[in-house]
Write a structure and sequence with these properties.
Layout: E1 5-11, E2 15-17, E3 21-32, E4 46-57, E5 61-67, E6 70-74, E7 77-86, E8 91-99, E9 105-118, E10 124-137, H1 140-143, H2 149-158, H3 160-172, H4 176-197, H5 200-220
Length: about 230
């Protein structure tokens, strides 16, 4: 199983300053087997069940956020519940770290242990384990490098869910204008990214946010006119 289970770790930045950084993001992607084709005649095959990732941060490293899966903190580290694995299908999660100061050089951040259950078996199997590192530096040229665009996109899209929850709380407490403004600003930011990068994923995310803004406006305030525009913040 190890030979066909692939994992990719991507930091949002090539290097961080020796004084430390907060936040620092890592995108984790995994797949079992060759990439799946877009069109399938049959349902994808489950190759393993209940995938788990155990993360053990090093001293001075704080795992502040886990986005895209269920997780829990235990005495031995953070256990991430990643669900079943289908042949050829890629999945990803986003991790947010706070990192203290270190000297220049390659520094260990955390240990990662991947385990799963084989189909029709109850025993958990360790697939792989590895140490994850990041580069600390005081070199301004390295620190000024642009963020990894794929990780940057994942960060931006992962902002939507917590922001929607924040806006919904405002609506539920009678602060409809505040909730509407939160959603509108986020939708506008996504549309700007869509235009800058010619990426439809940003546009589709903005569309979802705007539809929710319309729905919440009707549900909690009835603050829309016949043209579908909010009367609370326009």
């Amino acid at each position: 199983m190890n030979s066909v289970f692939e994992v990719c770790y991507s930091w949002n930045r090539e290097a961080i300053p020796t004084g430390g950084a907060d936040p620092v993001y890592m995108m984790v992607e995994w797949r079992y087997g060759a990439p799946a084709k877009r069109l399938r005649k049959v349902a994808p095959k489950i190759v393993s069940r209940d995938m788990e990732l155990l993360l053990k941060p090093e001293f001075g490293i704080e795992l502040k956020g886990i986005y895209g899966c269920r997780s829990k903190e235990t005495d031995i580290g953070y256990i991430l519940r990643l669900g079943d694995v289908y042949k050829g299908e890629s999945k990803q999660i986003l991790l947010e770290f706070a990192m203290g100061p270190r000297v220049s050089g390659k520094a260990a951040i955390c240990s990662a242990y991947w385990s799963t259950r084989k189909v029709k078996q109850s025993q958990r199997v360790l697939l792989r384990r590895e140490q994850l590192y990041i580069q600390y530096t005081s070199h301004l040229g390295m620190l000024r490098q642009p963020e990894d665009p794929k990780v940057e996109k994942t960060i931006k899209l992962n902002e939507t869910v917590p922001l929607i929850k924040q806006a919904l709380r405002a609506y539920e407490r009678g602060r409809a204008q505040e909730g509407s403004n939160l959603l509108r600003r986020h939708a506008d930011a996504l549309l700007i990214e869509a235009a800058r990068k010619q990426d439809l994923d940003y546009y589709q995310e903005a569309e979802i946010v705007e539809k929710l803004r319309y729905h919440y406006g009707i549900t909690y305030g009835g603050a829309y006119n016949s043209h579908g525009k909010t009367m609370l913040c326009e």
